[in-house]
């Protein structure tokens, strides 16, 4: 079974600073995708960034970037220049072709941004 | 852009009552999912439907049933609600290709008293 682990239930960051959220996963597959989702207080799940396992280059989306370490099965999310609107729950997720259509989610990290 | 529409947004049930959560997507996705979200436990898969006409159990299916009515709609039924089913429920859909993300509804906060 695939497992996704987020070991930081809560994190905080000063506004304008940088924070890194951790995610590790367990798989025997070689090709898969990883995702980070943001869930603000509105409850809406919003895709932040995705990474294909075959791509060595780390994905970036504006202030959001990932540090993908395939051998270590690690997929951390870095948020630069943190803003008050970044305060949310963040979920890491995994999907591969052999598990069919399932997504596997971590337990989430609650991020607080301190003004 | 409706995306995934989930109803209702809030519901309070008494123990033993039944209800159906409705979900519809307008993105022509093959796959649809029902998750529950509980504090500290992330999103856990209840049931999913890889394509119209098929449904499969996820991690926590007990106490639930689903119906994939057509390609657009995927409903979740609680036959006899229990307090342990108090949770936030999310419907999601995705394209079959594994490089695509899941799109979520806005969630249903269900309280069973």
Could you walk me through the main structural features you see in this protein, from its secondary elements to its overall organization?
The complex is a heterodimer of chains A (115) and B (113). With 115 residues, chain A is mainly β. Chain A is built from no helices and 12 strands. Chain A has strands at 3-5, 10-14, 19-21, 24-26, 32-39, 46-52, 60-61, 64-69, 74-79, 88-96, 104-105, 109-114. In chain A, the strands form 3 sheets. In chain A, strands 2, 5, 6, 10, 11 and 12 form a 6-stranded mixed sheet that branches. The radius of gyration of chain A is 14 Å and the shape is globular. The model of chain A has no long low-confidence stretch (mean pLDDT 93). Chain B contains no helices and 11 strands. In chain B, strands 2, 4, 5, 6, 9, 10 and 11 form a 7-stranded mixed sheet that branches. In chain B, strands 1-3-8-7 form a 4-stranded antiparallel sheet, with no helix packed on it. Chain B is mainly β and 113 residues long. Chain B is globular, with a radius of gyration of 13 Å. In chain B, 0% of the residues lie in helices and 51% in strands. Classes of the chains: A mainly beta (115), B mainly beta (113). The A-B interface holds A 6, 9, 32-33, 35, 42-45, 47, 50, 52, 91, 93, 95-97, 100-103, 105-108 and B 30-31, 33, 35, 40-45, 48, 50, 58, 88, 90, 92, 94, 96, 98-99, 101-102, 104, 106-107.
């Amino acid at each position: 079974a695939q497992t996704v682990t987020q070991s930081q239930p809560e994190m905080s960051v000063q506004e304008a600073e940088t924070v890194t959220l951790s995610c590790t996963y367990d798989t025997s597959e070689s090709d898969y995708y990883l995702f980070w989702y943001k869930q603000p207080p509105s409850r809406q799940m919003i895709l932040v960034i995705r990474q294909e396992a075959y791509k060595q280059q780390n994905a970036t989306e504006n202030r959001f970037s990932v540090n993908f370490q395939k051998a270590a099965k690690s997929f951390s999310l870095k948020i630069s220049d943190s803003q008050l609107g970044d305060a949310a729950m963040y979920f890491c997720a995994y999907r591969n072709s052999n598990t069919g259509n399932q997504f596997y989610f971590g337990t989430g990290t609650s991020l607080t941004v301190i003004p | 852009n409706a995306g995934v529409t989930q109803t209702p947004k809030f519901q309070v049930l008494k123990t033993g009552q039944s209800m159906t959560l409705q979900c519809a997507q307008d993105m022509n996705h093959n796959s649809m999912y029902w998750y529950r979200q509980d504090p500290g436990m992330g999103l856990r898969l209840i049931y999913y439907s890889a394509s119209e006409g098929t449904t499969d159990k996820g991690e926590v299916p007990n106490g639930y049933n689903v119906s994939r009515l057509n390609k657009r709609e995927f409903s979740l039924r609680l036959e006899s609600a229990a307090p342990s089913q108090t949770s936030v429920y999310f419907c999601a859909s995705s394209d079959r290709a594994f490089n695509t993300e899941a799109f979520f509804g806005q969630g249903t906060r269900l309280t069973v008293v």
